[in-house]
Amino acid sequence: MAAFFIASIQLGNPASRPLYDAYIEKVRPIVEGHGGRYLVRTERLAHLAGDWRPDRVIVIRFPGKAALEACFASEEYRAIQDLRLASVRSSAVIAEDD
Fold first, then answer.
1. Cβ distance 77 to 30 under 8 Å?
2. What confidence tens digit (pLDDT) does each residue in 62-77 have?
3. Structure pTM?
């Protein structure tokens, strides 16, 4: 059963963008190494309704929840996560396919 990682990002301080760009560059091979495939990775967003107004949205498909959890618990990911934590605000959910 596929699992989807869905994240919304608030970029905030423009001075922190280089840190976030470094994170973006380093996270992709980690995600792909755990079987993740980016479906959406964009800042081109159009607001439709409600209060949700992220600056960036990411959707990653993993072959299953175990692969997703292994990715974000991995040594490789933990080594770069501070780049994200120091540069943006983010929210994420896991959605499993039926």
1. yes
2. 999 999 999 999 999 9
3. 0.94
